[in-house]
Amino acid sequence: MKRCVILAVVLCAAAPLFATGVPEAAGSNVIGISKIVAHPALDDIERGIMDELTELGYDDLEYDLQNANGEMTTAASIANKFKADRVRLAVGIATPTAQALVNAIDDIPVVYAAVTNPVEAGLVPSFDAGFENVTGSSDLTPIRAQFELIASLSEVDAVGHVYSSGEANAVIGAEMARDQAAAMGIEFVESTVTNSSEVRSATQAIVDRVDAIYVSTDNTVVSALSALTEIAFEAGVPVISADPTSAMDNPVVAALGFNYYKFGRATGRLIAEILDGADPAAIPTLFMTDPSDLDLVINREVADALDLDVPAEVLAKASTVLGE
To answer: pTM of the prediction?
Structure first.
């Protein structure tokens, strides 16, 4: 029977850090995984990585699971912990935690996961190869297809977007969305936040000025998606998301994006290459490019409540239809 030991430590500002750290004797068998916040997509990546490595036969691995709770200082502390513990490999799920690991660790393999643009984030100089001890996977979102989905569901003159000004992947996502809106002749109405507690007020600031709200793979905003969707639903404004996983439990009309569990499994295979001796510097950024990597979720109940008629051709492409 395969054995998988998980050492899970959830961090918070009010508690002492790393009170239940990894035993020193286990260091060479420990995979350290740091995620910026807990939400369904990032949790699925974490689970997918572990499931893939287990299926590939890595019986003696232990996992030190860390959650930075949206705090960069905590992300940096986690990175220093992994360095001090001499983990076998460190994984950063999302841009801020990946950046913290790369800044702190130069002699242990570091794998980034779900980083929109690792080049602009300063993790690697090129998509075509890793850099020294660093490589990973990108969840560069299919922005054009997402905006075409928005346009197919409703007549849209203005699209709203709430994003984190301090999260590199969120800023990149906003730039892509802004450019795509301009290309389609749609007004782009922005509202920024610095933490998840501001998502509600940021949504309230724009909801009366837009015909739809687009949510990117922004960890800060997705972690407070329920606040955004509550305000939008009450105002009769449809929400379209790039994260199908989080859309399952919130009143999102449609979501088109990666299946993050599959994303985690693919990242697990990349990690296995390194565990088997591959040089991270020789491994290019992994992009999920197969159409089967994308999920389209349609919520008919929410669409009906907002008096939206979902085209038959959109329903035919959906991997999941809720509310039927």
So the answer is: 0.74
Q: Are residues 172 and 318 in the same domain?
A: yes
CA dihedral 164→166→169→170, nearest 10 degrees, is: 20
Asked whether the beta carbons of 121 and 99 are under 8 A apart, the reply is yes
Provide DSSP, 230-295: HHHHHTT--EEES-HHHHTTTT-SEEEEE-HHHHHHHHHHHHHHHHTT--GGGSPPEE--SGGGEE
* pLDDT tens figures, 47-91: 999 999 999 999 899 999 999 998 999 999 999 999 999 999 999
Do 298 and 225 share a structural domain?
Answer: yes
231 shares its domain with 154: yes
94-149 pLDDT per residue, tens: 999 999 999 999 999 999 999 989 999 999 999 999 999 999 999 888 899 999 99
Distance CA 321, CA 243 (A): 15
CATH of the domain at 190: 3.40.50.2300
Range of the domain at 16: 5-140+259-291
Coil/strand/helix, residue 225: helix
Write out the two tokens for 231.
């305000």
